[in-house]
Amino acid sequence: MPTVTAVVVGAGHCGLAMSRHLTARSIDHVVLERGDVAHSWRAQRWDSLRLLTPNWMTRLPGWAYDGSDPDGYLTAAEVAALVTAYAAESAAPVLNRTSVTAVRPGGLGFEVDTDQGRWLARSVILAAGTTRGVIPAVARRLPGLVSIPALQYRRPDQLPDGGVLVVGASASGVQIADELRRSGRDVTLAVGEHVRVPRRYRGQDILWWLDALGILDERWDEVDDVVRARHLPSLQLVGASRTLDLNGLQESGIRLVGRFAGVRDGHAQLSGSLANVCALADLKLGRLLDTIDDHAGGRGDRPEPTLVPKAPLGLSLLSGEIRSIVWATGFGPDFSWLDVPVFDHRGRLVHEGGVTRWPGLYVLGLPMLRRRRSTYLDGARHDTADLAAHLDDALKEAS
C-alpha cells in the first residue's frame, strides 16, 4: 500500500492552500478529494450565491485577486473556477473521486482507508470543509412538509408552490428568504440569535473596517470564550453592495417570527424572545460602530433600530399556509469516518488552533480556527502557514 508523509483530506481552498505550503517545505503528501477539486463550491451552494467577502479579500498562498472589480463579490461558480485553476497552477498532488472512508491510528502514524485503497501516513490534515447541514431534532416531527437544509437548497422552483418558512436569520437564512420573496413566495422567517452589520459604513465595506481594525486577526487564544466565539452566527450579510437586514426583509413583505422552538400537534412552537434577540443584535452593532468611529473620528450615519413586529408564538403547519421549510440553522463537517479519540462529549472535534490532541492530526476550515478571519476564504493563507510550520517542526523533532 502507498506510504506518504502527509495526507490532506479535501481539495477545497483550505486543502490546496495547505498543499502549497507542504510543497514549499518539501513535505511529500497527497490530497484526497471525494469529488472533483472545489467539490463543495460546485455541489453545496445555491445557484445565486456570492461570496460575502469582497474580491480584494480573495487571497490564497501565492495568489491574490488582481481583477478589475476589487469591490465586487465572486459567484460560487467563479470561486470553483478559481480554486480549480489554483490547484493546476500549484501542481497539487490531488486524487479526485477518492472518498476517505476511515482514518485511524496505525502503521507509521495513521491508516487512511478510501474507496480506492489504503494509505499509510505520518500525518493527516482534515480539510474536508462543510459537508452537512445542522438540523434540529424537532424536524423529524414535521407533519409531511417538504423540509431541507440550506445546503440542499438551489433555487425557488425547487420547492413546492406556496408559503415557505425559513428557519435562521444569519447570512444564509436572510439571503434565501430574500430570494424566495423576490420570486413571489410568501415567506416567514424564524429569527434567533444573529449578528447585524451594515454592508458599508462611512464609505467602506464593513469587512474593510474589521480588517483595518485588526478584529479579523484576533486569535483563538486571545478571546475570553473561544467555544462561544466558534459558534457565533455568521454576519448578516449578502454578497452585494446592499445591506440586507430584518428591516429590509420586512419592507419586502417577509413576516418575522421568533426562534423555532419545537413542534406540537402540527404547530410550530415559536419563542417569545424576538424583541430581545433583535435588541441584543442592535446593541452589539452599536458597539462595533462606536469602535469604528473611535478609530476614524466623528460619527457615521447609523442604521435604524430593528423594527420588531408583534409575532405569534405558534404557527400552523397543517393549514397549507406553509408548504415547505428551509433550515438555515448552521453547517458543519462530517467526521463520522474519523476513528481517532479527539471528540468531546457532544461529538465536537477538540483542537487548539487546528492542532488536535492526537499527534500528527490537524484540522482546517472551521470557524475561528486560529483567528477570526478563519471563517472566510481569506483566512486559509494564514492558518495553513501556521499549521504547515507546526507539522514541519514536529516531523523534524521526531526524526
Description of the structure:
The chain has 399 residues and is of the alpha/beta class. It folds into two domains: 3-131 and 333-398, 3-Layer(bba) Sandwich (FAD/NAD(P)-binding domain), CATH 3.50.50; 134-327, FAD/NAD(P)-binding domain, CATH 3.50.50. Helices cover 26% and strands 23% of the residues. It has nine helices and 25 strands. The protein has helices at residues 13-24, 39-43, 76-90, 171-182, 206-212, 226-230, 246-251, 274-296, 380-398, and strands at residues 3-9, 29-32, 59-60, 63-64, 94-95, 100-106, 109-114, 117-126, 132-133, 146-149, 163-167, 187-190, 195-196, 200-201, 204-205, 235-236, 255-257, 260-264, 267-270, 314-316, 322-327, 331-332, 351-352, 355-356, 361-363. The strands form eight sheets. Strands 1, 2, 5, 6, 7, 8 and 25 form a seven-stranded mixed β-sheet that branches. It has a five-stranded parallel β-sheet with strand order 10-21-11-12-17. A three-stranded antiparallel β-sheet has the order 18-19-20, with no helix packed on it. Helix 1 links the parallel strand 1 (3-9) and strand 2. 42% of the residues are buried. The model has no long low-confidence stretch (mean pLDDT 95).
Topology:
Elements: E1 3-9, H1 13-24, E2 29-32, H2 39-43, E3 59-60, E4 63-64, H3 76-90, E5 94-95, E6 100-106, E7 109-114, E8 117-126, E9 132-133, E10 146-149, E11 163-167, H4 171-182, E12 187-190, E13 195-196, E14 200-201, E15 204-205, H5 206-212, H6 226-230, E16 235-236, H7 246-251, E17 255-257, E18 260-264, E19 267-270, H8 274-296, E20 314-316, E21 322-327, E22 331-332, E23 351-352, E24 355-356, E25 361-363, H9 380-398
Parallel strand pairs: 1-2, 1-8, 2-5, 8-25, 10-21, 11-12, 11-21, 12-17, 13-16
Antiparallel strand pairs: 3-4, 6-7, 7-8, 9-22, 14-15, 18-19, 19-20, 23-24
Helix pairs in contact: 1-3, 1-9
